[in-house]
Amino acid sequence: MIVRQQLRIRDPYVLTDVAEGVYYLYGTNHVEGFDVYTSRDLELWEGPFPVFRPDAGFWADRDYWAPEVHEYRGRYYMLATLKAEGRCRGTQVFVSERPLGPFLPCSEGPVTPRDWECLDGTLHIDEEGKPWMVFCHEWLQVGDGEMCAVPLSDTLDAASGPPELLFKASEAPWTVARRGTDTDYITDGPFLFRNGERLLMLWSSFGGDGYSLGIARSASGSLRGPWLHDEQPLFGQDGGHGMLFRDTQGEWMLTYHKPNRSPEERAVFYSLADVDADLLP
């Protein structure tokens, strides 16, 4: 067993099996492939259990980042970031019959545009039941990092239309440029959720006190927005890339990694009621 405070992980993503009373924790854990940990109390964890390892000839050879697993139409789909020498970073989709894997490629390479540097794809099902991937178009390529969305096929194995711009990182009043410039703004880690008829997004960038977790709110209640940003980040001191999940009792929880510096990053967990009642779905 591994105590939470000893488990190094970035970009935590939790899938809850209420019937079995088990939490599955995925994230960036610095291996060539993806692993999962399991727990019954969010403090003591078993694993890591490998859920994906690349076969010989698999296209990606680095930057195995930010896996997240969604149950969709009775199967489990992993969206994860990867990169290779001479190819752009992108998000690919994998599929399995169970949370412990093994996960196999579902899409033929990334479903993000092949000539874009992209990361941190997340699944969103819109009000009409149509699947989308929301992802980050990296500041490394565009300067002012972009939050984008691309429609997916019903089997999640390919894009079904062109990407659409949702907002740019500099539009949030709390973000600051990196590296002493006035152009390098970062978008990281989107996660969308509904609160009644409202659609909200957790996402990360850098603020005045380091890596931060912010909130954007769709004025229309739909994916296309327009997206409005809170004046201050939800958490603004060296932690971010968050998501929401229900615990085994049905209560909402928030997780993100903190601090952002390696090798000290750890998953932290909060009851959502203790964070901000305005977020409660």
From TrEMBL:
Say yes or no: keyword Transit peptide present.
no
One MF annotation (Gene Ontology) recorded for this entry: hydrolase activity
Keyword Transport in the entry? The reply is no
Give the keywords, sorted.
Answer: Glycosidase, Hydrolase
Q: Which InterPro entries match?
A: GH43_arabinanases, Glyco_hydro_43, Glyco_hydro_beta-prop_sf
Name the pathway it acts in.
Glycan metabolism; L-arabinan degradation
Q: Which domain of life is it from?
A: Bacteria
Similarity annotation: Belongs to the glycosyl hydrolase 43 family.
Protein name in UniProt: Glycoside hydrolase family 43 protein
What species does this protein belong to? Paenibacillus hodogayensis
